[in-house]
Amino acid sequence: MRDQVGAPAARVALVAGATGLVGRAVLAALLTDKRYAAVHCVGRRPLTLEHPKLFSHVVDFATLSALPGIKHVDDVFVALGTTLKVAGSQAAFRALDFEAVVALARVGKSLGATKLGVVSAMGASPASNVFYNRVKGEMEQALARLGYQVLILARPSLLVGNRDALGQAARPAEKLGLLAMTLFKPLIPANYRPVAAAQVANALLSAVHSTERGTRVLLSGEMQAII
Length: 227
Fold this sequence. Notes:
Blueprint: E1 11-16, H1 21-32, E2 36-43, E3 54-58, E4 75-78, H2 84-87, H3 90-110, E5 115-119, H4 131-144, E6 150-155, E7 159-160, H5 172-183, E8 195-196, H6 197-210, E9 214-219, H7 220-224
Parallel strand pairs: 1-2, 1-4, 2-3, 4-5, 5-6, 6-9, 7-8
């Protein structure tokens, strides 16, 4: 495959979570990337966005085991995620942040995908005492067992982006955290500073394409360096 500049569109992407902060940025980047001939988005509702190479698929993540409307996929990008408050229970949170993510990754691999980029969370660890971080860690662990040639795990700190434009519920703790980190930015290590959703998306795509084999973890400090 030739480089992106002037390259013929050849790759096919599968995306989930395109209505969220990072997922929306991932989708925007893929639609302008000349390496991609088609971008398939899956979600619980159809996308209102229209584009010549965009295909929207409505799915039930709870029963997802195949995507009959898609013949082949090269790269999978997953930006699914919620909060315990929005989910309403630990079981509902796990259903999306673990089960749906792993189910989609399995389907992508069955369609021929060899590269997988996923938005996780800072502090993700299967050994964590914090439920949120433990589920994220268990999700990463499960994805690593699927046998993708390339697995990119983005672990952003607090995300910067316009949630109001997405119709998402306000997150007061996030706003307070962003304010505090802005005031004390020089004292805060890079990996703990807020990172823009677009930076996370660009870093994820860049890592998926530049990594030839293996698992790579992206922390906020590295993602902030992406222009």
